[in-house]
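Schema walk-through. Below, the input block comes first and the output block second. Nothing else is stored per chain. Lengths vary across the set, and this one has 156 residues.
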Amino acid sequence: MKRGAKPIPTALKSLTGTLRTDRMNSHEPPVSPLPELPAPPDWLNPWARDEWVLVAGWLHSVGLLTATDQSIIGAYCQQLGIFREAEEQLKLPGARVIVTDKGYEMPSPWVAIGNKALMQAMKIASEYGLTPSSRSRIQLPKEEEEDPFETFLRRN
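--- output ---
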């Protein structure tokens, strides 16, 4: 039996503006963002490497990419890479339907491979705020406007 909604990490609560000290998990392990954007893992296919640059770059820029997240983000990118590879295979003439030895038509295995990879990628994406609905829950901190009086005082 499910026990309700999944707990939300403190860092994400802070970004969404819903962090309350009375509801913080005191046993949550501390995580620290990576100081530099890491290179894509060697095991990613070419499409996944492109996705890594986009996604890991964004997560790093908002301070959500940690050392422990690299494998999961890599898995997300690889699943999207597999989806792209399946779509490329399905562009070939006659690739969407195959005919069995007995003459029956059935969908190409690439259809199932692409669908499964996309579903896996979407599950991971929702965990990291990479879908429109999950991203709408994230509020980045506003940049404070420069007070003209403070600027004047610093110059003098």
